[in-house]
Amino acid sequence: MMSKKENKAEFMGFEEKHRILVIDDEPSVLELCRELLELEGYEVECANNGPDAVAMAMSTHFDVVLTDINMPGLNGIDLFSEIKIHQEEVLGIVMTGHATLNYAIQALNSGFVGFVLKPFRLEHLLQAIRDALQTKQVLLENHRLKTLIPLFELSKSFMTNVHLPTLLDQIVNTCVLVTKANKVSLMLLDEKTGKLKIAAAVGLSPEIIKDTEVSVGEGISGYVAQTGAPLVLNSNSNTDPNSRFYQLLKRSNIVTAICHPLLSQRQVIGVLNLTKTSKGSQFTRSDLEFVSILAGQAATAIENARLYENLRQSYFNTIVSLNHALEAKDPYTRGHSERVAHYSLMIAQQLGLSQEDCEKIEAGAKLHDIGKIGVPDRVLLKNGRLTKDEFEMIKLHPKIGAAILEPLGIFKDLIPIVKYHHERWDGKGYNEGLKEEEIPFDAAIVAVADTLDAMTSTRPYRKSLDFDSVVNEIGRFKGRQFHPIVADAFLELAQNHKADFLVKDGEASYLWVTKLAMDR
Asked: Model-level pTM greater than 0.70?
């Protein structure tokens, strides 16, 4: 983590003066408007035709467009509609000497908010400008209030979502939704390397996400991580061309950017980057306000998710160690859970499940037999076939395993795997007698993996089966004991990687899956 130095935002090109575009085919009108408006403190640009005005709007942000209606070529109403394509938030004022009700209706329908009749008086022109800017301020405030709704929804989600990748995706997607940014990236500080790495992004290629590493103090993101202060950049304004970041924006075709630190307990843990590449559209102060609130919520949620994951991993490692100790008592089952986890992961990947689901299934498979802790050693380690009563005791281990995990709320997503991995597709399994789609899909995957390892492992009362026999058995019981889709996924894996399956007692399946994992 980097210590925060300041929390005062830096603004490069964030407009303090309002900018007005005046469009008229009469040079005298343009010069008069420029002179009057500049005396009032406005920044003014002028265009005497439609194409020039559109070109200006594509490269420069304007608050208000003041345009004549009757001009050669594109009339003022159509011209304003064209400009609105590039600048959605710009407001328009009509200048005309030919005011009619029809013109007024057309202008209002096109988004104009004011009228100035030629020849105009100074106070009328200035009042129209002030009214337009006041209207824009109200619209911006409404927009700001609307951003509070997704922030409220997101804050509720932050309280319940402790899966870090999902949380980070929520953050960047919300930024895009609210600010209309073209690209958003969330970078986290790697404490080992001291560099910022992209943890979630929208609008960036997988290669950029994977390869980008930024040192603290390097570039825009590194600068913000170093200072701990937000940075707003708008290249469309009168930003100093010699600014350390202006040329970087220009090379990257970025019109406007917000870079905000993620602070937890006054320490920088990452940076949130938002950029727009659309000409003429720049971030507003309400956008910065939204990002600032979001960044504060996000940093807290990220730290909470990390703490939760550390706690979960600590508990998980403890339980896995107990399971290893249990398996170590029996030479026939040593390494069983690890092999089942490998199988389960490979089948899940073959099925095209998400990385999150694959990780969950792998973790659940490692714990699937934890309930055997509650089975007496005389039954668990019996060197021979079990009696009916002893088998009934063994059949309790899924329930016992679920009971062990239930008080630990952090493992609630793994409980269905532990509890239902001995259910059968035809409903003849145990303990609940679930059938078909009633069986959780994760548990159905582990059920195939568990059976696979059991068949390829030697037991006191039988030898392990060869690989072809295993494949035939799983195929034969597809749709009876095993979920058809899961069985098909295993059979496809077996067919495509049969040559890599080295048959050697219980090691066969382990070696095969290990080789398969390396191939992938």
From this structure: no
